[in-house]
Prior knowledge:
The complex is a heterohexamer, with 3 copies of chain A and 3 copies of chain D.
Chain A: H1 2-40, H2 68-84
Chain D: H1 2-9, H2 18-35, H3 41-54, H4 67-76, H5 80-92, H6 96-100, H7 104-110, H8 113-125, H9 135-142, H10 149-159, H11 164-189, H12 192-195, H13 207-224, H14 229-244, H15 248-255, H16 257-271, H17 276-279, H18 282-312, H19 331-343, H20 350-374
Helix pairs in contact in D: 2-3, 3-16, 4-16, 5-10, 5-14, 5-15, 5-16, 7-18, 7-20, 8-9, 8-18, 9-10, 10-11, 10-20, 11-18, 11-19, 13-14, 14-15, 15-16, 19-20
The complex binds sodium ion (3 copies).
Amino acid sequence: MENIAETFIEAGTLMVVGMVFVFAFLSLLIVAIHLLAKVGRYFPDPISVEKTPRHLPSSSAMEKPVPAPIVAAITSAISHYRKNKTTK
Amino acid sequence: MENIAETFIEAGTLMVVGMVFVFAFLSLLIVAIHLLAKVGRYFPDPISVEKTPRHLPSSSAMEKPVPAPIVAAITSAISHYRKNKTTK
Amino acid sequence: MENIAETFIEAGTLMVVGMVFVFAFLSLLIVAIHLLAKVGRYFPDPISVEKTPRHLPSSSAMEKPVPAPIVAAITSAISHYRKNKTTK
Amino acid sequence: MESIITLWESTGLANFHYQQLIMMAVGLGLLYLAIARKFEPLLLLPIGFGAILTNIPIAGFTEAGGLLKYVYDAGIDTGIFPLLIFMGVGAMTDFGALIANPRMLLLGAAAQFGIFATLFGAIALNLIPGFDFSLKDASAIAIIGGADGPTAIFLASKLAPDLLGAIAVAAYSYMALVPIIQPPIMKALTNEQERKIEMKQLRHVNKFEKIIFPLAVLMMTILFLPAATPLVGMFCLGNLMRECGVVDRLSSTAQNELINIVTIFLGLGVGSKLSADKFLNAETLGILALGAIAFSIGTAAGVLMAKLMSKVSKDPINPLVGAAGVSAVPMAARVVNKVGLEANGHNFLLMHAMGPNVAGVLGSAVAAGVLLALVG
Amino acid sequence: MESIITLWESTGLANFHYQQLIMMAVGLGLLYLAIARKFEPLLLLPIGFGAILTNIPIAGFTEAGGLLKYVYDAGIDTGIFPLLIFMGVGAMTDFGALIANPRMLLLGAAAQFGIFATLFGAIALNLIPGFDFSLKDASAIAIIGGADGPTAIFLASKLAPDLLGAIAVAAYSYMALVPIIQPPIMKALTNEQERKIEMKQLRHVNKFEKIIFPLAVLMMTILFLPAATPLVGMFCLGNLMRECGVVDRLSSTAQNELINIVTIFLGLGVGSKLSADKFLNAETLGILALGAIAFSIGTAAGVLMAKLMSKVSKDPINPLVGAAGVSAVPMAARVVNKVGLEANGHNFLLMHAMGPNVAGVLGSAVAAGVLLALVG
Amino acid sequence: MESIITLWESTGLANFHYQQLIMMAVGLGLLYLAIARKFEPLLLLPIGFGAILTNIPIAGFTEAGGLLKYVYDAGIDTGIFPLLIFMGVGAMTDFGALIANPRMLLLGAAAQFGIFATLFGAIALNLIPGFDFSLKDASAIAIIGGADGPTAIFLASKLAPDLLGAIAVAAYSYMALVPIIQPPIMKALTNEQERKIEMKQLRHVNKFEKIIFPLAVLMMTILFLPAATPLVGMFCLGNLMRECGVVDRLSSTAQNELINIVTIFLGLGVGSKLSADKFLNAETLGILALGAIAFSIGTAAGVLMAKLMSKVSKDPINPLVGAAGVSAVPMAARVVNKVGLEANGHNFLLMHAMGPNVAGVLGSAVAAGVLLALVG
Ligand code: NA
Ligand code: NA
Ligand code: NA
């Protein structure tokens, strides 16, 4: 039983040390993220070209013109599929 | 020549035993499939949402369930295209 | 220093032999490609079926009627793709 | 005649041990959970199938030259498969919600109490005759409370390979059971008023912040806990590939084809540990019981921490989001959302729960590192 | 000067043996068949290319540290590559037609007579001086009659690795030649009237049946023939992933990227066995001859079995579908369809032939298991 | 208390050597170049990340059982990863422009002077105390001038594994710097008039020619330089899969998923060679300096050769295209196009530069073969 008592103490120590460490680590990470946010303000996202049409009044998912490359992708997908249909 | 005769006998035995086994095995599988079909009646396919339009009067080729491989081909083509847009 | 002198000679020899070899090899390849071009004339590309409609006056990629199930496939593929964009 | 005897002696019928039959039933049970109940099917289906293959008499799948032995030795014993899964998961993870509201990390920390309390519990089980868990065993079992499959497999392969099968099965099963295990605990520890709390909309997070974040996490892990760097490092590599925007083809492969391939083999390899002699014993029952306790304690700790934070915070915090701290991404966050909606039909907590949810992944990786450093 | 001599001594010109030239011509021949004739190009192209690389003097592709040696040792000697191919093929296979009409399994059984008759034939060849096939060799050769590439490679790697190159080349070549080998035999054994027979439309098969089917096949294999479980098990895993509907991303990877990657390496690895000393001998000629015989006997046995069944069956059976029992999926089924259409322009036998076709895959896997159990 | 000490002793803080910090800074620097400057990000990102992981104290990524050691041993020490990359690059390469104008091969030959001159330079560096490059070392360093990453890694892994990290980093860095290194040299060696030269449109190239081309290249390499057949062979296999039209699914996998997977691991494996003891020394500085010289000499040699050819050719040749002979596909060709456009707004040299560009790939593979044959 001595042995078990010892292991209990070890397990208890592990529990305390482990939880303290996890909290300390993630708390430090909170600090780091706050710093990151401050630095981040000086590196704003580049203004994306894609977002412009969003503001057009009549836009809906259906009316968005399908980008030509997607049309090409679909075309090639279909021919690709036809080619592969006979493959084992 | 003795040796060959012996091997012949072995080969012949293998032929008989093998064919019998193959037939026995696959015959048992026939039985199993018949059983499966009987059990299967109690587990009908869930009524798929996609299939509902089939019953509409105007059904045409458009409503035929699209073969999975075509969907897969196109899906993968589109994502493939997007992946490759920036590719070396 | 002797040793270095020797290595220098080795390096110099490597340089000469290497460049001569590279030139000889690639020059031979030039000859081979010229031969290939001559032989290639007897194996013209098969006239592709897809190219025929190109010569028709009204044909454009858009006007070829897309089979209905494929249209359905594309629709479902795109919605499938959109669905999967956010999936784990 | 001789042939027929040889053939008979090479049938399964002539060689079955009843334990193998039981283990095959376990494998079929896992397949049932995966297919009919949709419990973590990506893992439980190959694990269940691997369990069946492993227990086939004579076939020798896990003996020298057997397929599953190759898979286990190459990918699990080395730790490569869970690390690649972690890279893929990193490439799938959006830390935006966490960066926008970093306090949520505390919830991810609190929920790890499930791990450390279970460690204590596993040692306590030794008081019952028939159990003899070493500290390494107990640590490997406790990590089930981290609710993170690859972390559990990685740690178990290092600390207690013999228990790996039971640990992995428990981890994935309870992850799948999150929608059943968590809600009662969440409701018991909160009142209707608390569950109705709506949270402030999250701020927009820069691409810059998202790129630096995985590097910052890695740097901190290097400074304070190198033992966790295999897990955290591969996770951050995946996340960096995702966010940096210049290697999209690598990121896409990491979160699709590569992770799919590895998942199949990881599952089969884990299944190869579900052999009768390693699974059919009291320890497995202990592990399953401890796993359920671990999940429950982790959930409770997260919710209680959220209640505490709610009291000292100026911005409102719905204590339900604490339950997402156990990780089990994204299931736990969805459960939070659902329970939140039950209390308040306009309260969409999903994005808010994603913060503690991914924090839980980091938290359990850190906890695994602590265990490796102190026990391994 | 010395450099030039060294360089000359390291050219191919200074080191060629004429046998290597012959083997390169064989490799080029395989490339020709693959590219110009479209004969099983997915396998014959990498095999042909591997054959060329293997026979390059000095380069050492198959010596210690050589690329092809790594490939062979890691993937073929271990059996991993053919098993993964089998998993992918399982994920591509729809057993619907077979489940709807299970009697077709008898055709898949009958066609395996090609295997066992050839085994006998291979032993008979020993009567000719210069041939000395052991029972293991004969078994590995006979499996060509199974018309299934991965099964042939798997069995050959276990029973007769030295013959693997010739066996794999024969198997894939004859599979590609199915449209030339089979029709004369089919026409010789049937009359116009029989070929015109139309068959009843197949019933609808449940998702439930499709999910349970691979598990049932696996269970039967476990009970009666564990030696076949590597092949059948991986095949059923692939099929289960396909049908269960909850792991579509794994199924898709198994039948696309994973099988493609493995196919490249499998082909190269098989090609590495096409070295002069192992290929340029009488045994190879014997193997090629025996392979052709195996295919022919298998086809004939399938057709005759179908004729027999047609007589005792109340539903009509077109005896042509018996030819599909050799497997060679889906080529043999297409050949059946074509020959059927020649006799009756309205007779579409494709779906009916898919039943015996996939039954042939199971049949040859079972036959391989029997050989492994009795000879291996 | 003891636990806390153990924990402290297992932190990075307690175990850092300052050289490891420097190497991590190098790794971060590579990440910066990859992400912010888009310098060959597909390789430099995993290399940089690998460098960081490698230098983490205690974590043991490159020790027995460490992830990066497995990766390096399995893929780089064996040469498998660079060869697979080469197969993928072959599947991405269109030789049409070169077949249409085969004289461009001479430019690809001339640019290899960068390699051999640098070999001489590396030996010359031995005159400076602190440098002691063997002929093998010098050869491995010189191949940087080939401007081809996989070739450099393959050769370095065979001739000078200890220098592999520095060589790979130099190769990819200078490949990324092509738009900065090349234009001044190109402009210094040509006059405005020459840069304005427009070239004749390229003829159409048959599918037949494109299919036979990789086989012809392979055959010549077999005859004259078997030592180069691993590189050239895998490259030609990829190209044949691309052009033959019958194995599109293999070709697609080779140039997408497979190359992506291998790229991640190749980068990590190369990064594992960026450990302090192998990188932080005078030799690395020497390698970086020699690499820059190699690129410059290669560029100059290409341009001068093009000027020479322009004089003896009846069809006009713009000497700028000679710069593309160093390979660095397709960056060098784009640089040529850009510099050409600056001189003549209607002069699109891109397609004309693709000929020497892909010729440069063959040229450096041949040069690598010569070095392997004579020095290896
Ligand atoms: Na967790
Ligand atoms: Na078969
Ligand atoms: Na080059």
